[in-house]
UniProtKB/TrEMBL annotation:
Gene behind this protein: Racgap1_1
Recorded superkingdom: Eukaryota
One BP term from GO: Rho protein signal transduction
Taxon lineage: Eukaryota, Metazoa, Chordata, Craniata, Vertebrata
Alphabetically ordered keywords of this record: Coiled coil
Listed name of the protein: RGAP1 protein
Length: 142
């Protein structure tokens, strides 16, 4: 009778362990499904960041191009003798002031119109800061 009781206790423990194992496997399946969804979201987010970075670089290149054109126009208006004859003293003063501001802004990196964005989001938008090390996954899966 004592052996039968021990076997019954062991059988009940085995049943509980099987139920625990089933619940753990279900939780594992849910966690793996969630991880897969998050990996897809991460991939889409990385692609979106890359697209936005390309747009930003194109916009910055266009901005530099337009600033250079503006600088050439300032120089032409201020240095061209025919342009100086057409401009009044007040207009030349305003142009030289604007040209001076423009030159200081282009010579002082980080002080452009988007400096607030550059300073606050530089680490968020930098390609070098965005990385995903898969070695952590390997450790977890083993």
């Amino acid at each position: 009778i004592q052996i039968v009781r021990c076997f019954e206790v062991i059988r009940q423990k085995c049943c509980r362990l099987e139920q625990d194992q089933r619940r753990a496997r279900e939780q594992l399946a849910c966690a793996e499904a969630d991880r897969a969804v998050l990996e897809v979201k991460l991939k889409h987010a990385r692609n979106q960041v890359e697209v936005e970075m390309k747009k930003r670089h194109r916009a910055e290149a266009e901005l530099q191009k337009q600033e250079r054109k503006l600088q050439l126009i300032f120089e032409l208006l201020l240095q061209d003798p025919s342009g100086s004859a057409v401009l009044t003293v007040e207009q030349r003063s305003i142009l030289s002031t604007l040209a001076g501001r423009h030159i200081r802004r282009t010579l002082a990196p980080g002080r452009s119109r988007s400096s607030a964005v550059d300073e606050s989001c530089q680490s968020l938008l930098s390609h070098s800061d965005i990385s995903y090390d898969r070695t952590d996954d390997d450790v977890v899966r083993k």
